[in-house]
């Protein structure tokens, strides 16, 4: 894609639809005291932004409880991350989308990549058109990633090799999430 100039990472799904057998109002997601709210619950997008683009010096965010969901935690957030030299990264998180959505768009000065998890698509968009990139049938199996991560963790706990993402890396993403939550509390300036 050449030099990445901006990116957009979007994720959303109606909280009542996540675990239909459970009352969403009683879930940890509904309660900020138990780690609920889109910023901590959907931290994967912050983690992915760091993994793809590095660390960020600028963190701006607007978020809160804007829907009719009966929860105490924030249900949506719009986040802007940046640093000198770019890229500018916008992240949108919500508990409200009626259709599950997880979509990343990476815009470079030569081409763009668009990844759409529910659609099972990764497209390279260039000057001459759109090329679908075949990632294979297992590339969009989210459940497999959770199983693999849990297997890796249990193996490490039992004395096997350490996890590929160490605690310090996880703490850096958690720190970024806390910076986002702080930015959401900052008063708007004109």
Give an account of the 3D structure.
Helices cover 28% and strands 28% of the residues. The chain contains 5 helices and 8 strands; from the N terminus they run βαααβββββββαα. The chain has an 8-stranded mixed sheet with strand order 2-3-4-1-5-6-7-8, with helices on one face. It is globular and about 50 Å long. With 190 residues, the chain is α+β, with helices and mostly antiparallel strands. A hairpin with a 5-residue loop joins strand 3 and strand 4.
Task: Furnish the topology, listing elements before pairings.
Elements: E1 4-12, H1 15-18, H2 38-41, H3 44-53, E2 58-64, E3 76-82, E4 88-94, E5 101-108, E6 112-116, E7 121-126, E8 129-132, H4 142-157, H5 167-185
Parallel strand pairs: 1-4
Antiparallel strand pairs: 1-5, 2-3, 3-4, 5-6, 6-7, 7-8
Q: What attributes characterize this protein structure?
A:
single chain; 190 residues; 8-stranded mixed sheet; 5 helices; globular
What is the structure about, briefly put?
The chain is an alpha+beta fold and about 190 residues long. The protein has helices at about 15-20, 40, 45-55, 140-155, 165-185, and strands spanning about 5-10, 60-65, 75-80, 90-95, 100-110, 110-115, 120-125, 130.
Oligomer: single chain
The helix tally amounts to 5
Q: What proportion of the residues is helical, as a percent range?
A: 25-40%
Name the poorly predicted regions: none
Total number of strands: 8
Distance between the amino and carboxyl termini: 35 Å
Q: Could you spell the SSE succession in H and E letters?
A: EHHHEEEEEEEHH
Spatial order of the strands in the main sheet? 2-3-4-1-5-6-7-8
**Biggest sheet, in brief?**
8 strands, mixed
Helix/strand/pairing category: alpha+beta
Percentage of β-strand residues: 25-35%
Radius of gyration using CA atoms only: 18 Å
Question: What average pLDDT do the residues reach?
Answer: 93
User: Looking at the structure, what is the overall shape?
Assistant: globular
